[in-house]
From TrEMBL:
It holds the Pfam family CorA. Keywords: Cell inner membrane, Cell membrane, Ion transport, Magnesium, Membrane, Transmembrane, Transmembrane helix, Transport. Belongs to the CorA metal ion transporter (MIT) (TC 1.A.35) family. Gene3D superfamilies: CorA soluble domain-like (3.30.460.20), Magnesium transport protein CorA, transmembrane region (1.20.58.340). Its main location: membrane. The keyword Ion transport applies. This is Magnesium transport protein CorA.
Amino acid sequence: MLVAYAFSGGSLRPVPLESGEVPPAAIWIDLVSPTPSEDAAVERSVGVEVPTREEMRKIEPSSRLYVEDAARYMTLSVLCTDDDGPRVTPVTFILVDGRLVTVRYADPRAFALLAGRLGKSCPAEVAGDVVLMELLETLVDKIAEALEGAGEDIELLSRRIFERDRVGSRNRDYRAILTLIGRKEGLTSYVREALASVSRLVAFLGTTTEDVPLRPAVKRELKSMARDVQGLSDYANFLGNKLQFMLDGTVGLVSLEQNNIIKIFAVLSVIFMPPTLIASIYGMNFEHMPELGIAVAYPIALVAMVVSAILPYVFFKWRGWL
């Protein structure tokens, strides 16, 4: 899908594509899972090469930011959340001749939010670099929201692990806790990857390039964004360290539970060892055993053995030891 936005009536609105060609007034050209014909139309209109999906995936991290033919090529790892969970997806930004081209094969919410906001109002001097900064700010805001939600969930999970409830610790499902810890660790890892990508992009934009100059206002915004990204990175690292502590604590609690169960088994074994010893020596050596004269004594003994094996298992299961 190809969507071109142009300034009209105090806002940035999508413009119709006549014969599939991009109008010259377009400031922001958004390519979403583009077809080869749409790629060709943008290349003819803007005069830059649009990378394919395979090229975006295979590009090395050190080669994601470069200048070619008076155009800045920037491939960013963007945090994307959908039904399959959080992930990072590559998005390419091309800044050339005051226009911005975005190429993506996913649908992060930041793009729809920015299109809706700029569709209501935007400055008259809007250009590609302005749209890029607005888009980066929206992406950073979404990352901050994800981190805030993760922080709240991690705090609740920490209380669930370390605060003892009224019924004791036997109702804790450590498998579910470990699964939640793994999911939150995956989210923070994706967030840190996205923040590191934004940090590299901001540093790249802040460098002086005579072929693609930036306005002073944009450079000031870059400095503010760099501070925000650094703060979010520190918070993401804090959450990562907290998750590691929670993982170690959960594994330690599991070990304590297992040790307590083994201790109980050991105590029971010691308690029943003397009666077992006495029974094994003297139990079958009495001259008079009335049970031997009962016809159903043998089946009753078999049932008693089965019940004596089932009852401890049920008791241990009820106590949460198994």
